[in-house]
């Protein structure tokens, strides 16, 4: 046996072997703990990935089966009908993808039904309004006619990516929902400030400014929020598709042929060019006479106004998407 250094404990050969075994066992235990920790981390990571995949699948399924969203009140027909004194007819709100309820006709009275399908970016719609809005206003205010506006979005691809047609139709639905008696003036103001097709159009703040700037408007704050949030965007999509697919209620028109589509007592107004109020006024009288030939009280009271020019209307493509139907 060799001498040990001073103060160093002398170990036997067996003791040194035992110490070495113990040291090796401790090293193996540490290695096992490290391996176990690594496996747990890997398993935990895989579990998180699996959870994320499951959540994504659930969201896709949920989004595919949930309702399309709300529709506006007072537009159960996909349009808003305005009567004497510019008072809107009230109707309940339907879900965006619910089947609309066609407005009842007034065949038993001396009131003329005027229905207008329009796109707020459509320049031809603007020309029709310029020629005939004052005349329609006189008929509606006096009770000689009702007018029902159906805002659609078939020119979505004509505003440099801003979806102006959709946003404008949504703004119209916001007004119909929160301040329906303001709708006629809103419609007038929208065409007075109509942007040119092919431009970015008005932003949401400008749309809200038009909607809340109408005299007597109610709930301006809610209208602004509705426009900013595009509360009725899904309804715009669905209503546009319904019009494009057809048929057009209370008429013999198979499907929306373009904008503007104007009906008087269910008869389609096919204007010559340019638009003139005289032509439209005569058409209203003729359509009223045809509809009410057996009713001696029929008395629509058209009045003349200035002429205005027109060009062919905006038309849907052969294969329209629900909310992005391009013009010709």
Strands side by side in the biggest sheet = 2-1-4-3-5-6
Percent of residues in β-strands: 5-15%
Q: List the total number of helices.
A: 8
> For the terminal residues, how far apart are their CA atoms?
108 Å
CA-atom Rg in angstroms: 35 Å
- The unreliable regions are 1-8, 46-66, 294-301, 303-312, 317-328
Biased composition (Low complexity): 296-328
Domain Thioredoxin-like fold: 112-281
Protein name: Protein-disulfide isomerase
GO molecular function: isomerase activity
Describe this structure in words.
The chain has a domain at 80-294: Glutaredoxin. The protein starts with 12 loop residues before the first helix and ends in a 37-residue tail after the last helix. A six-stranded mixed β-sheet has the order 2-1-4-3-5-6. Helix 3 runs antiparallel to helix 6 and helix 3 (164-178) packs across helix 7. It has helices at 13-65, 123-142, 164-178, 183-192, 204-212, 220-229, 233-245, 277-291, and strands spanning 80-83, 87-88, 112-118, 145-151, 261-264, 267-268. The chain is of the alpha+beta class. Helix content is 44%, strand content 8%. The chain crosses the membrane at residues 40-61. Residues 1-32, 291-328 are annotated as: Disordered.
């Amino acid at each position: 046996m060799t001498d040990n250094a001073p103060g160093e404990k002398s170990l036997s050969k067996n003791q040194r072997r035992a110490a070495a075994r113990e040291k090796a066992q401790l090293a193996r235990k540490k290695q096992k703990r490290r391996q176990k920790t690594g496996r747990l981390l890997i398993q935990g990571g895989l579990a998180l990935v699996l959870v994320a995949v499951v959540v994504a699948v659930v969201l896709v399924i949920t989004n595919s089966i949930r309702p399309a969203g709300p529709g506006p009140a007072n537009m159960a027909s996909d349009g808003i009908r305005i009567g004497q004194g510019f008072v809107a007819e009230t109707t309940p709100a339907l879900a965006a993808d619910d089947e609309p309820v066609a407005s009842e006709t007034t065949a038993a009275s001396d009131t003329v039904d005027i229905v207008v399908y329009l796109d707020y970016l459509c320049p031809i719609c603007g020309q029709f309004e310029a020629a005939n809005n004052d005349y329609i206003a006189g008929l509606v205010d006096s009770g000689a006619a009702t007018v029902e506006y159906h805002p659609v979005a078939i020119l979505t691809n004509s505003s440099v990516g801003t979806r102006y047609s959709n946003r404008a139709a949504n703004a119209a639905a916001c007004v119909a929902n929160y301040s329906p008696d303001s709708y006629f003036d809103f419609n007038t103001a929208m065409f007075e400030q109509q942007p040119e097709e092919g431009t970015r159009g008005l932003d949401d703040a400008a749309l809200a400014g038009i909607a809340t700037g109408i005299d007597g408007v109610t709930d301006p704050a809610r209208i602004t929020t509705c426009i900013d949030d595009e509360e009725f965007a899904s309804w715009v999509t669905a209503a546009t598709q319904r019009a494009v697919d057809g048929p057009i209620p209370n008429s013999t028109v198979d499907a929306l042929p373009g904008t503007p589509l104007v009906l008087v007592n269910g008869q389609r107004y096919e204007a010559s060019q340019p638009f003139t109020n005289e032509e439209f006024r005569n058409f209203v009288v003729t359509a009223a006479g045809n509809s009410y030939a057996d009713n001696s009280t029929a008395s629509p009271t058209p009045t003349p106004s200035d002429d205005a020019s027109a060009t062919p209307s905006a038309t849907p493509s052969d294969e329209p998407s629900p909310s992005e139907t391009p013009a010709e």
